[in-house]
Amino acid sequence: MDHATVNAPPVARKQPFTATHHGIILSDDYAWLRDPGYPEVKDKEILAHLEAENAWFAAQMAGRQSRIDALFKEMRARIKEADSSVPQKDGNWLYWVEYEDGAEYKKWWRRPVGAQDDGSADELILDEVALAEGKEYFRLGALSVSSDGRKLAYSVDDNGSERFTARIKDLTTGDLLGDEIPGTLSALIWVAGDTGIVYSLANEQWRTDNARLHWLGQPLTADVELYHEDDEGFRVGAGLSANEQWLIVATSDHETGEVRLIPAADPLAEPILVAPRRKGVEYDVDLRDDTLFILTNDTHENFRLATAPLSSPGEWSTLIEGSDAFYLTGFDLFRDFYVVEGREGGLDTIAVRYYDDPDRIEPVAFPEASYSAGLGDNPEWAMDALRIGYQSMVSPSTVYDYHVAERRLDVRKVQEIPSGYDADLYTTERLEITARDGTSIPVSILYRKDRADADGGPGPLHLYGYGAYGIAIEPGFSTTRFSLVDRGFAYAIAHIRGGDDLGRAWYKAGKLERRTNTFTDFVDVAKGLVERGYTEAGRISISGGSAGGELMGAVVNSDPDLWGAVVAHVPFVDVLNTMLDASLPLTPGEWPEWGNPIEDRAAFELIAGYSPYDNVRAQDYPPMMVTAGLNDPRVTYWEPAKWVARLRELKTDDNVLIFKTNMGAGHGGKSGRFESLHETAEEFAFILWQLGQ
């Protein structure tokens, strides 16, 4: 379609379709937008409709192209073109990654420990630039060097479908071995003296219900299934223990877990079941000698750390009690000590503890009152300096080495902003805004100290939220958001219920029957920011993706007048129909998160009451930009396509509604460190356009 001839948005035809559940009839006039051959999309009418929407998107944004180009240029100027990570020792080698000038993708390097740092001993082990050449989309999945350092296992997705092809490279010759495993969706784990690889295949429903062993040099037909999961809601993953002596095979859904241990040297040995699954009990396991360390929520929702003898893996003794105040999120074992990570008051904490002295606790101190911090890559069993990552909304990403014996942080690298960055120009705050039920919702906010609106009133504000799966949105650093902040915006993150920002109870308070708390929290945060003078109704732009896109859909239905611009990326908006379809990859494993409307009428009625697609109605809606990925296995393309079609049918305003489908990408949009900036530039150009900035 010629963009110059596009004078009106596409109108999807209506084709009546009904289904009955619990005696209730559902009507869906746009169900036809789902290609019956999915995951292949070949229906000409569907493709023509998506292309027409893309043409309308291009026509509407054509007048903003100079702004998009300017935004892209300034975003790119904040990224160091030629950059590299801090080398990290693993065995006899130092490993690091590099970006070259103009490169979208990384190169993976190593050199022998003790070799001169002059490039003479540097060895390129994987070249993403070469692998991505000529491809519209490229993503490296797993990457794992064998314990002897002679082989590299890696996997690649070149269409966004998240079905990766695994290959093995001989690092002594640079040649690819004949082994090729298509359809993986997992880590690649070396076992049996580097003669075998453990992996998981994605089944037809894009679920990993297996852990399989591939012997190098043998045909795939000889691969052995080490474990198969029969519960369609569970997914399987594998990894190595910290001392690399045990293969850990775990299976879980969003609320229940189960772990088996297999000797890494003998992967065909009978697995050891740590503890049989109990509904609602999650646990993770690692080992030191013959002692298991178990992170579990069996006695406290914020988790405890327990130990057990390998000979009696189900006999758990508490090492660290669960706590209302401290949310225990993870642990890492090392030879001489172990490290516990968690959150207290919503802020990250890292503490070193000792096996022989349980009362000796050494927290790592950080310089700011609000920040994000966590352990980085620490691959060796015997570590004396821990790699730690740190950032805040005003502090660029910083890599530290924490010298355990000295309790000292050593700065190894600070993110460079080539175009210039002065932290003194900005301020960040941590607010508490009271929701309608009396709950205090934390909000992180960033703005320039000299922020002033041209007319003297409150300036514009961008509000971001997610609120699902227990995923915390931490107050970290982003170079792109300064393209709004430097234009007078305040940028706020709402730490709403549904994430685990304040602990596991915070997560539970936004899922299942309490799901709507997530939506009302977001609205109440926006209203609270208006009341405090940070902005005013109608001057708030909002964005979210995936489950955060569901959030966008819910709040535009409930409070459309609050928002001046809305961006919903790959939005999970057709919640009811998706949760009613057990054949979809997103469904059986998601019932613990959203509820099962097939079996539970109350869950059906609850989801029907908030599902954005089902609650579009005849009212004015704010300006909206929506995206999708044709190959997206997480939120299928037809969800946003149907939502936009229904919005076009029912909305009573003349505000802009544009929809773009990435025809060669998936859930994450375009790949590449610069290509992805084009989409952010489009998003920000849309926001600035609609808010008159």
UniProtKB/TrEMBL annotation:
Q: Which residues form the signal peptide?
A: none
Q: Which SUPFAM superfamilies match?
A: alpha/beta-Hydrolases (SSF53474), Peptidase/esterase 'gauge' domain (SSF50993)
The alphabetized UniProt keywords are: Hydrolase, Protease, Serine protease
Please report a single Pfam family linked to this protein.
Answer: Peptidase_S9
Domain Peptidase S9 prolyl oligopeptidase catalytic: start-end pairs = 476-692
Gene3D superfamilies per record: alpha/beta hydrolase, Prolyl oligopeptidase, N-terminal domain
Q: Where is the Peptidase S9A N-terminal domain?
A: 9-414
Classification via PANTHER family? PROLYL ENDOPEPTIDASE-LIKE, PROTEASE FAMILY S9A OLIGOPEPTIDASE
- Give the UniProt family note: Belongs to the peptidase S9A family.
Q: What is this protein called?
A: S9 family peptidase
The protein's organism comes out as Tsuneonella flava
